């Protein structure tokens, strides 16, 4: 009994053909999916990055100054699900 027949592997994979080469009934290329972000969404992404970068810089400064404090209770709460 052959489990891995070479002809069947390619026939069973419906994703082997690239979508860029597929055509419709008239011989034209099919349109591929596209994603476009609005200006508001791009602005929200850039604001989120700047706020995150600012928070990271504040944490770096507090670690370098020696004023960074780790709350042991919060740390234990976050680690507990991974230890179960």
Characteristics of this structure?
84 residues, mainly alpha, 3 helices
Explain what you see.
By secondary structure, the chain is mainly α. It has one domain. 55% of the residues lie in helices and 0% in strands. The protein has helices spanning 6-12, 39-65, 72-83. The two termini are 45 Å apart.
Task: Describe what is shown at a glance.
With 84 residues, the protein is mainly alpha-helical.
Task: Spell the H/E element sequence.
Answer: HHH
Cα-to-Cα separation, first versus last residue: 45 Å
Number of domains: 1
Q: Strand share of the residues?
A: under 5%
Number of helices: 3
Q: What is the CA-based Rg, rounded?
A: 27 Å
Helix content: 40-55%
Structural class: mainly alpha
* Average pLDDT: 79
Principal-axes shape call: elongated
Low-confidence stretches: none
> Largest beta sheet, briefly?
none
Structure summary, number of beta strands: 0
Could you outline the blueprint of secondary structure elements for this entry?
Elements: H1 6-12, H2 39-65, H3 72-83
């Amino acid at each position: 009994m052959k489990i891995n027949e070479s002809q069947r592997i390619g026939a069973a994979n419906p994703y082997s053909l690239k979508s860029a080469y597929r055509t419709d009934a008239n011989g034209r290329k099919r349109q591929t999916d596209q994603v476009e972000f609005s200006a508001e969404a791009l602005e929200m992404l850039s604001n989120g990055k700047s706020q995150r970068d600012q928070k990271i810089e504040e944490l770096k400064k507090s670690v370098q100054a020696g004023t960074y404090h780790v709350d042991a209770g919060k740390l234990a709460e976050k680690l507990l699900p991974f230890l179960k």
